[in-house]
Amino acid sequence: MSTIALPAAQPPRSLLPDLSLVGVTLIWGGTFLAVQTALQWSGAFAFVGLRFAVAALLALLLCRRQLAGLNRTELLGGVFIGVILYFSYNLQTLGLGHIASSTSAFLTGLYVPLVPLLQWGLFCQRPGWLAWAGVALAFAGLLLLAGVDGLSIRLGLGEWLTIAATVTIALEICLLSRFAAGCNAGRMALVQLATVALLSLATAPLAGEAPPQWQPLLLVSVLALGAATALIQIVMNWAQKTVPATRATIIYAMEPVWGGLIGWLAGEAMSAGKVGGAALIVASVLLSQLSAHKATHAPA
């Protein structure tokens, strides 16, 4: 008697990587005030360099026993992504010196539809319709959060700097998913963080920045944001081993939601448009999880 082999049941997909990226966006949403405060006593390049230097030292302490296994892919990939990170952080900071934060938020939000397009164009990975629907919801939510002022765009220096930063952010997300799968998250993050620190500190005097004025709040900001940056980069390198770039992008859109919630708790008003934008972004994240569930349980 012949037997019919039934397909093996697939183990349930772990939500931990996705939830870890949600945690990353929560940390991002809470760092804006600290960055604004620190820039009173430090130039942008110097502050980014100091922040990433602290992050690199912490990453070194965390993964020092694994350094012997550093391979060529982790080194070259880490340096490449680190250079992109250097441009994204510093271009966005420089752009904020010329445009309103609402305009910056709108232009930065363009990375949401840009990531799946880059994935498709660079790596021939076309997202499914549910992923595109999630991207559309997230982008619509970001438009509402940016507000009417963010839509009044005149392409001056600040806008072009921010657009360039947005392209590098999208490219970083794509490359993380591309490189992370076969690499150690701690070692990759260490190389990325050290690259940003060295390039930013080297650029500060070339940009004519004065040395930082060491105040207690600046020191606290550097240390706290350095620790947060180390955690963020390690988690991103680990989580994007299994979370595709398009789904990660939708999750990253949660950042302004947390920022708005923290501002509301601090006494800032939340308009109906911003509440609606936040709801659309949350819906997009839930839709991305439905897309992932369908992909995991698709018949072989």
UniProtKB/TrEMBL annotation:
Give the residue spans that cross the bilayer.
21-39, 45-63, 75-92, 98-117, 129-148, 160-181, 188-208, 214-236
InterPro entries referenced in this protein's UniProt entry, alphabetically: Diverse_Substrate_Transporter, EamA_dom, EmrE-like
Q: Supply the alphabetized keyword list.
A: Cell membrane, Membrane, Transmembrane, Transmembrane helix
- Pinpoint the EamA domain residues: 18-145, 157-287
Its membrane topology is listed as: Multi-pass membrane protein
Q: Where in the cell is it found?
A: Cell membrane
Q: What is this protein called?
A: Membrane protein
Q: Supply the source organism for this entry.
A: Vogesella fluminis
